[in-house]
Amino acid sequence: MIRNLFFLFFLCLIGRTNAQELNAQVIVNADLVNQTNQQVFKTLERSLNEFINTQVWTDEAYLNQERITCSFVFNLTGYNNGQFEANLQVQSQRPVFDTNYDSPILNFLDKDIVFSYQEFEPLFFNQSSFESNLISLISYYAFVIIGMDADSFKQKGGSTHYNKALQVVNLAQNSSNKGWKPSDSTRNRFWLIDALRSNTFREFRQTLYDYHREGLDRMTEDPLEGKTKLMEALKKLEPLNQRRPNNFLIQIFFDAKVEEIVNLFQEGPKVDFKETEEILKKIAPFFGARWKQIKA
User: What is the largest CA-CA distance in the chain?
Assistant: First the structure.
């Protein structure tokens, strides 16, 4: 009996220490690229899937079932002799307690994607040096995904991962690639990680935690209480919007959450949604038509 228990413990330990953090799907869409030989795009897709899913990004232990579901979709807009231009759609989800539902956390479109890649080129990540723009892009978003996931489970749980993403940004700024410098755009990789780490935007991270742990994770046990907590979490974004109207993080939050919020409040026990709706109209007016659909 003791031997069997030890064996089970050993298997759990192995599963926890060997599993990587991300369960990612990478898609390289070359439909817009006029290229007869599509093999290089398939090789790139296969290499990126292997790289992301086998890389150990943190010192934390993850069980296989705890790996974060995410996707990286490269929509190529140009290709010439190993030089790629693309848009990158990055998405991630986290499971909701005691359900089969995955809640969207991140849904971000990065339009400043240019990188070099030669077929069968090995992909290696080094935290202390800039290897290539492709490696920096993947590692940056890996740390952002892990950080936002951690924030949804523990208050300020993502801080260590955001710091690693900042280190990627700092190293990449010495390159000529766009998206890493504050002067490149008002809403790019630099400004995203700057906002995530800044106390100015503290309500975003608090909302990320309250919305998921206090709200969604309670829905199965007590749907009415869960909805009440969801509304309280959403209202916490109002002071942030008053300080920084139309800020980057609020748009990122609702780009991921709008469909979920509408669906959650259209179904189940009814709550008084009027006050929350008015706040949503102020802080996320770009989704005004969707908020009107909620008849709670």
Answer: 64
Q: What is the β-pairing status of strands 68-80 and 83-95?
A: antiparallel
Burial letters 77-112, b for 16+ CB under 10 A, else e: eebeeeebbbbbbbbbbbbbeeeeeebebbbbebeb
User: Which are the contacts of 171, defined by CB distance < 8 A and separation ≥ 6?
Assistant: 128, 129, 130, 136
Collapsing DSSP to helix, strand or coil, 89 comes out as strand
CA distance 169 to 176: 12
Q: How many whole angstroms separate alpha carbon 56 and alpha carbon 17? A: 10
pTM: 0.92
Query: Does residue 182 sit within a domain?
Result: yes
Q: How far apart are the C-alpha atoms of 282 and 24, rounded to whole Å? A: 35
Residue span of the structural domain in which 263 resides:
207-291
Residues 177 and 215 in one domain: no
Distance CA 143, CA 164 (A): 7
Q: Are residues 186 and 213 in the same domain?
A: no
Q: What is the per-residue pLDDT across 135-167, written as a single tens digit (0 to 9) for each?
A: 999 999 999 999 999 999 999 999 999 999 999
| Integer Cα distance of 78 and 48 in angstroms | 18
Same domain membership, residue 128 and residue 49: yes
Q: Is the pLDDT of residue 82 over 90?
A: yes
Reduced to 3 states, what is the DSSP secondary structure of residue 219?
coil
